[in-house]
Amino acid sequence: MKKRSKILLGLAGLIVVLAIVYRAVNRAPAADLPAGGQLLAIIDDGGCVMCHTEKPSLPFYASWPVAKGLIGKHVRDGYATFDIAPFIEALKQGRKPDEVDLAKVERSLADGSMPMMEYYLVHWGSSVTGAKEDIAMNAVKQLRARFYPNPLAAPEFANEPVRPIPDSIPYDARKAALGEQLYADTRLSADGTVSCATCHSLATAGVDNKRYSEGIKGQLGGVNAPTVYNACFNFVQFWDGRAATLTEQAGGPPLNPVEMGCSSFDEIVARLSADEAFVRQFQAVYPEGLSQATITDAIAEFEKTLVTPNSAFDRYLKGDKTAMTAGQIEGYALFKDYNCATCHAGVNMGGLSYELMGQRANYFEDRALTQKSGLTDGDNGRWAQTKVERDRYRFKTPTLRNVALTWPYYHDGSVKTLDEAVKKMAKYQVGREMPDADARKVVDYLGALTGQYKGQTLTNTNRQQ
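Below the sequence we write its predicted structure tokens.
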């Protein structure tokens, strides 16, 4: 009995000591720190850099037999999912943090998924207490309000991770009018058969609804054509981000041997120059005349007009509670619950970051088994531009605006229906199996993202197979 009492007393003493240590090290950041400083302190306490940076400083026990495998996996998975270093640097310098990074931090705090329980076991001060969570969530809201103001939304939705599309963005009307003509002009292709509108028709939601688009001589591209609508809100263009601007993007397809096949823009200029009426019209806007710079500038200016505001969801965010059905409102809640609103954040609900395809399960292995489809050059994603191994299979997230009209889905166009696309995203990106009932509600909500162009709700003249 005496021995047992001593053991119990010893355990009680250990608990008291640990509690004292816990309280000593796990304190909330100072109240007088700015929002960014408070969030930095909590991120530092939470040890986020250990799993979410390229070259973390690991603890001494990371090389121990059991810990090595566990910690190694956490570091690999954590860094693949989220590199927090740029976010931390932005907070330190008081700069605008990445909008998707902000949403990811907010979501991990809201669902309590970070820091992981295994990390708590050896880092007592890393746990996010209720006080810390409140401070961190408030800091996120302050940062979002400061750097991503949302004046279009009703007050209750002003701090949502997604924002309504504005009615328009600034553009030069005269240049845009020329750009609209050039957008539909097949003279931009070597054999006069393909225009920008061939693969990105405005009548079919800015896509062609084909798995791979067809260029000159019947050649097929290597990735699915993304929609041109709302492309002005993307942080880069193309799945692999190889174009930084709309102007740069407009210069790519004409010179691509598979798409439009021209040897140079001199060839295009020569063809257009034979049209005297068009040259006069063009020089009235661009006195310097036809060139790659002026042609692509005009097309880019036209693409700035291709915004689709006033979807049912936009109207709902602006305060019209009747704009969405009860089912769509529930679908939006599930959309956030399944973490979709982290990568698909902002005005365009996507197009703001590069994300790994298959964060929680191996998409490409499964595709090979189910579709007998091996890896292609198009599957390399951002790696094709950077040659950095972390960028392999990482793609610019697509916009979800008008997504009900832009089938098939994913960079490889391998998914025919929105229902299948939603379920697979839950599996491969979130690590959750989505029940059919949830999927139906999310798909119903995504239908509320179809916006208006020139005052008319966007439609698609193609019929989904």
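Residues 10-25 have pLDDT under 50 and may be disordered.
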